[in-house]
Specification:
By secondary structure, the chain is mostly helical. Helix content is 81%, strand content 0%. It has four helices and no strands. Helix 1 packs antiparallel against helix 2 and helix 3 runs antiparallel to helix 4. The longest helix has 24 residues.
Length: 106
């Protein structure tokens, strides 16, 4: 299926967010954090490749996924005694929540 004219804006957003996630993974101080950002980049790439999904539906699906991951990170952080690991999870929760907010506002 060929992309529609309006889809190019969505594809551009996905590309920018995937690039950001890849750069974040490359500069992450922790392998765990890097892995999460690599998975985020893969999510954006998958959405770019799945052109059969309407952009609004894809956007809603990604936002829901990001919000879900953010909540999962927070819940996991609350149950940890290891403060360093909890801080990493809180950071990821904030990053994924911010990604969801960015996409909502586009």
């Amino acid at each position: 299926m060929e992309p529609q004219a309006g889809d190019f804006g969505w594809l551009s957003i996905l590309q920018k967010r995937a690039d950001f996630a890849r750069k974040s993974a490359a500069s992450a101080r922790s392998p765990d954090v890097a892995q999460e950002f690599e998975e985020l980049a893969a999510l954006y790439q998958e959405a770019m490749d799945a052109q059969s999904t309407p952009p609004e539906q894809a956007k809603d699906d990604i936002i829901r996924h990001l919000q879900s991951r953010s909540s999962q990170f927070l819940m996991e952080a609350r149950g940890l005694a290891d403060q360093g690991r909890a801080d990493k999870l809180k950071f990821l929760a904030g990053a994924f929540g911010a990604e969801a907010a960015r996409l909502k506002n586009r």
